[in-house]
Amino acid sequence: MRMSRREIMAGTIAASGMVACGAAHGADATGWQALAQDVKAQMAWAWDQYKAHAWGKDEIKPVSGTFSSFPLKTHHLGLSLVEALDTLWVMGLDSRFEDGVAWVKADLDFAVDGEVSVFETSIRLIGGLLSAHHACGDAVLLAKARDLADRLLPAFATPTGMPYRFVNLKTGAVRESVTSPADIATYLPEWGTLSRLTGDPRYADTARKAATAVFDRRSRLDLVATQINVLNGAWQSRRATVGSYCDSFFEYLWDGWQLFGDAECKRMYDVCTAAILKHQQVWRDGSLWFADVDFETGQVVSAEQDELAAFYGGLLAQGGAARIGAAYVESWAKVQDRYGVLPEGYDYAAAQPTQRGNALRPELADAAFNLWLLDRNPRWREIGRTHFLAMKRWNRAAYGYTDIADVTARPMLQADHCPGYWWSEQMKYYYLLFSDTPRFDYANNYLSTEGNVLLGFRR
Ligand code: IFL
């Protein structure tokens, strides 16, 4: 496929590791456009590495130049490629986007006798295909997304409507009935979009029923815990958290309202959020945190914060709690200033990391972008810039961007894995945050938990 002149320049700049300055700088005294061009150049460079060393594979290992599979154990579904598509498109890396779409149309087949996580497969692959479809309108992308959703549907055939955690893509065999609110209830934006585009209500109905089933089992404090049995609805843990296992359950309640105007989703979001603000909010040395608490008594059980919870300030602000959302983002920004890259776990009471790695995470950039969409305060761009520049400094490896084994070491210790979400999330958040691109409607849009744009592209 032929590359445009702009794309060739982007690749050249990235290969040299330089920021694209020149004309863009002249037109933009604060350097945001130059930064956007640098993000685009890094994306082009990383894509070219993926193409050369891992084309059609799930995830590149950027230090060794090899690859690994996910969500299937031994078979590849081009995860990174699918996740990258709408990011390439919004950046105007059009020939690379077309290359990727051509691969999907010719080579992506979900009829594989293997087991996947229902949640991960939905947010990454169904979401990636739908956002690529939103970018270019190609009907084959929608058909592939629908085929995949049909293969996940057997997981939802439980007495409660909450899905099993794993399903076999070919046989429909299911496994693991104890799972989390995030695994159960992170479907409505993608599946509602599928219903809207195909005219088949089953997808939206299934997703909504699962989310409602979690909400209906909340405690008397209106909190949910991290683990539940989908066959009998009995909770298997007592820990309420805004981090891992629950995070995108809250996010998709709000999103059901934002994307579809579903008033019941808003009511559920408001009830859950009021409870979290009442029972989990902790102020310490001028910083705001959300403690893990017992979901029935409200007693604090841990001061450890997942890095994954860093997205939550953006969600709170979207839901109307702008001041408190901004405060939570600032708490994480202080940790970022201290370590350069956020540790996966952080204890706010001890002011120390509890897990020293970082899985190339997008959450702080995600929150900064959501706040930027709401008030255009340059502070959020600055937090995004710090996130991006630290990534360039510490995560760049020979064949792409990698995760970190220890953020406290100097130089930081690199691991060897580029997760699929990197292609869909932070690279897109940075670009949208810095570029003011006309391909995106900054006033009316929707990005999923995986950063997939399901509303807001301007073709
Ligand atoms: O898959 C990503 C997504 O944002 C999510 N949870 C974690 C991943 C990124 O850290 O919902």
Structure described in brief:
This protein has helices at 5-16, 23-27, 32-54, 79-90, 94-107, 118-136, 139-152, 181-185, 188-198, 202-216, 247-260, 263-279, 312-318, 322-339, 363-375, 378-394, 421-424, 426-435, and strands at 59-61, 66-68, 115-117, 166-168, 174-175, 178-179, 228-229, 239-240, 281-284, 287-290, 292-294, 300-302, 304-306, 345-347, 352-355, 396-397, 400-401, 404-406, 413-414, 446-447, 453-455. It is α+β, with helices and mostly antiparallel strands and 459 residues long. It starts with a helix and ends with a strand.
Bound molecules: (3S,4R,5R)-3,4-dihydroxy-5-(hydroxymethyl)piperidin-2-one
Distance between the termini: 21 Å
Q: What's the β-strand tally?
A: 21
Tell me the β content. 5-15%
Helix share, percent: 40-55%
Shape verdict: globular
Count helical runs. Answer: 18
Task: Output the keywords.
459 residues, 18 helices, 21 strands, 50% helix, globular, disordered N terminus, binds (3S,4R,5R)-3,4-dihydroxy-5-(hydroxymethyl)piperidin-2-one
